[in-house]
Amino acid sequence: MLSADLQGSLNLIILRALSRGPNHGFGIAQFVQEGSEGLINVEEGSMYPALHRLERDKLIAGEWKVTGNGRRARYYSLTRTGRKALADAERRWSVLSKGVEKLLGFA
Amino acid sequence: MFGFRRRPRIDDELREEAAHHLEMLIEQARAAGHSETEAAFQARRKFGNTTAIHEEVRAVHVNRILENLLQDVRYSFRSLRTNRSFAITAMLAAAVGIGPTTAVFSAVDRLLFRPLPYAHQDRLVSVGMLAPLDSNEFLFASPYFELRRHRPVFEAVTAFQAGTIPCDLTEQNPVRLRCLRVERTFLEMFGMSPVVGRTFSTGEDAPNGPRAALISYGLWQSRFGSDPGVVGRTLPLDGAAVTIAGVLPAAFEMPTLTRADILLPLALNEATERNGRALRVFARLPEGLSAAQARLQLQPYFAQALEGVPPAFRKEINYQVRSVRDRQLGDVKLVSVALFGSVLGLLLLACANIATLVLARGLGREREMAMRAALGASRLRLASQSLTECMVLALTGGAAGVVLAWVLVRTFAAMAPGALPKLDQASIDWRVLGFALAASIVSGLVFGIVPALRTPKASLIGGGWRSVGSGAGRLRTLLVSLQIAISIMLLTGAGLLLRSLWNMQSAPLGLDAGHVVTARFILGKERYGNDQRQIAFFGELEQRLASVPGAEASAITDSVPPTGGTRGRPLNTIEIEGRARPPEGTGGMAPWRFVSPGYFATLRIPIVRGRGFIEQDREAAMFSMVISDSYARSVFPNEDPIGKRMLRGPKGEWFTVIGVAGDVRNVGLSKKADPEYYVVRKPTPDLTYANQEPPIGWRAATAMVRTPLDPKLTAKAMRDTLAALDPTLPVEIETMRQRVGSQLERPRFNAILLGLFATIGMALAAVGLYGVVSFLVSQRKQEIGVRMALGATPHAIERLILGHAARWTAIGVAFGVIGALLATRALRTLLFGVPARDPWTLAAVVALLAAVAFGAAWVPSRRASRLDPLTTLRDN
Prior knowledge:
Chain A is α+β, with helices and mostly antiparallel strands. In chain A, 57% of the residues lie in helices and 15% in strands.
């Protein structure tokens, strides 16, 4: 299970993954693993509570579709609020990470 | 619910989503060259705990709480159904806890809690002086005028006459009604107004004003068919036409709870009235002032009022200011609080009892719980499940309790309608149901919270040995001790009340109540308006009573023991010839009665010295009196009282003591007798009461006949005798036994109720102890087996188990005795002939409970001693 401070990051990661287009849970997990080059490694199932929470908050919308290989899967896509929330979060994140980098003397 | 998806769909969807995810993971792993089983294993590990994820996703959706609850409730019913004996026992315990609590609540609610039907009810107080012969405060007219004129402290004051006046609706078929005289301001100050018509006008409330009446709702319905045109019509009341001014509301009740059919104007005459009539005075306090503060502030007024009281009486007078509620409660305040307190104790006992059951069941189900925890159920979830189960028990038990309460309330009201004021109105209404619901929920929380907080331990999945000294074990024994302690308290209270009842019943009355029939009546004002008519009636009645079939003796009296009746005199106002007047305020009252010569023979009151009354004593120039034995001893300790002269007549004549009668109970059965004296009824006007209203004096009387015949026949004969004299006269017929018995109505009611609660409590405590000991035995089976294998005799095993039970009982008894000593002090005023800290009652209660506890523990301990060591050791 994910600890609380990671939850916010997980939301951000999911929103980021979906900004490239609608995807299902497995696809998002793949994106996380590949995109972070294996640095972020969580139990993939624990993504679902986050997905459902985001859907409840209307940041993403879910829809059943048939995948390329003919299976039924639930595809999630960003809503307009989701897109805005992602933009906000990315801006905050970059400000924060720049600040932290400066503080730690990497820049 | 808007915006949320329904539960089953979410579950299905999530299952499908997860399945898809897992398939993809498996495919990926297979593609990486893993075997089928290896791939499945890796996929599962990568995905994580499906159950926990399911739970968490469901928790995202808000209507969760409700759904959890529904699920828990459904699960509770299922799991309770599989363990019927547990469920039924717990429900029964809840029912016998909640039932009596609800019943007593319904009986005392109107007295203690429910708002009274008056405006500003919290600020209304009763004001007046407390004097002997009347257990409630009153004021005479002149101090009331003072209060009304200057209105110290109060915002408003009003008054009405103490007691109702019998009044006759004189039509073709005369009807006896209860009339009550109130001041014009009465309805207004209490915030009540007539449903039809108006209240009295100033003119109507003035002396010799136009005659007007307010009629009760009941009279309006029965007599006038709820005709709104009744206002302005006239009623023939005691022979005079009275105009109906209005109709009182259905919910109308006097603040004194006196029942009245008709209200008449009080018509106080400020110019002439001084202390003829006793008034009930009520006042409205200003905001924020308590009755006690008002009483303090009224001290100067009271001091002044006391100056108007004859010096001989002053020591007997107290002034009082109390709330309307306290006034209504009167002497039953303590009883209502005590009864309610004892049922709350019983409820707590029942909760402790169920908690031990739930704990035992919880331990029995530790494996199940541990399993469910391992399968991903959160601790909170398990706790809430257990609490839900308790709620289901409490609510079903509460529902059964309401049925029980209904039966009990019916029984109370039928058994003793006069035991508590307003008891006849007690019913299971919404308010009472609300109370029962609240009591059930609180009980469910109380007995559910403890087991709910216990964490299941994973180590228990495999079973194995446990020790009994665990936290749960200690808690259970504490709960058992608590039950025993409460039982002791309830039993002690019940024991004291029962002993008092026994003392009241068995204390000698001083008379023989068997075979005496009494008839009470009040002569109507119209037919018996003057002394001659009254004297003629009584003369004729006395003749005819003697010829009632089988009559051995008969008499007429103004009052009948064991109550004091209507006349009394401070002892220090009774002069004795040749002695100085006793100093002011030596205190004490002597009740006295006007009796016809047959009185002592009819009641078989022994004449211990001298003689009783004979016809000659009724001659105008004769002033004879009979005094009671204890009075004779206190006034003439070493002299012969016969022939002594004492007590002055209306013109200063001395009365001569002609006889001494045996002591008779005369202040009810719950108090010791007061000294008493008797004066013979003469065919002359009753001067003492000539000017008083209500005109108790001559007009109110009781006729008595002693016959060996069936009381039913005698009752009919007496009714016929009175009807032959005056067919319109309402008569109340009772046997003397019934009269004495009705004095015991309240103490019997209190003792029976407390006895019932104590019995239920003791039974519950015994079941609780039995349960805990049985559980101890089943838990320590292996240990017992080992002991036996090592050579312990069955006897030693029995002693071991009983030893535990004895320790818990002893702890409970110790606390119970302390609690009882503290609590029963409050019962002091209800007791008769037994001290509140009566060691004998306490000893009997402890012995009884010890015996019951021994019985409850003996059965399972016996079972323990018969265990087969081989089987117990092989079992696990």
